[in-house]
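Hi, here's the filled form for the chain we discussed.

Project: internal
Contact: R.S.
Residues: 307
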Amino acid sequence: MTIPGCLRRRPPIRFTAWLLLASIATCFANPPRPRVVSPGSGWSVTYPAANHGRPTRAAAVALADDSLLVSVTLPGADAGKPTLRYGNSIVPADLVGHDPVSRLSFLRVKGPAPETPATWLPEAGPSIGAPLTAATSSAAIKCRATGWAKQVGGKILPLALLRVTFDRGVPVSGTPLLDASGHVVAIVLQPSQQKLTAYAIPAEAVHRVFSDISSKGKLTRGWLGLTLRAENPSPQIVRVFANSPASNAGLRPSDVLQRVGSRPINDYADAANAFFYLAPGQPVKIAFLRGVEPMEASLTPTLPPQN
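And the returned structure, exactly as it came back:
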């Protein structure tokens, strides 16, 4: 599977954990344009064109607070100037914040909200393989999450996305995907190159980004102070920075990561996804192999160093 433009394979390079802030905007700079289903009535957001870009329209869905909405701003649109609508009526709203990595935008409705808040799952993983519904206001589209997309066209994504197949047209970005109980599992990011298939942002990423957007105004990643090499077949540490959380916890070069928090690590892409969820000041347990001996350590990520 390939996506045109920036996702052509590039020579392997080294990355440190804190440099995994590569934007999904870069990965999806030229999204395809298959047939989509209009959001019809309900919440929608129009974003004007940015410089040399194009305007886009996306669905929006309420979070736990009915006046707080989450949507998606695709590359080429100006996230800072959204126009919120309910049906065909413009609804005054303020932009709470936008994260250029995940493409998530959060808006707060001014005044009473016409819809009740949605119930969100804590994470999307348990819903993989189960029947889902894309909740457009004009129709209910059957779909199914078939697995995780960790890289596209050889480029590793900064966070893992759900790969979702639909029984007919792919819904617009921001459309919520619901499980059998009506809980939000994920929201559509954008179509893939495969027919009737799209990428979706999992619920846990929405929670993680909003936690920082609401308190700090932007997503702040946690830094461990270790380096992995993307081309290695295993997630082996190749460098540990002095006086870093990893160094203070006793990690060494050649240690092989097995788990970060609750997320198993099998390769570099798994590590990139796990690092996305690290928050400064929040301890995390790491399991790793030193030779053949399994070991564990508790680390507290910090803010990335300035230089």
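Let me know if anything looks off before we file it.
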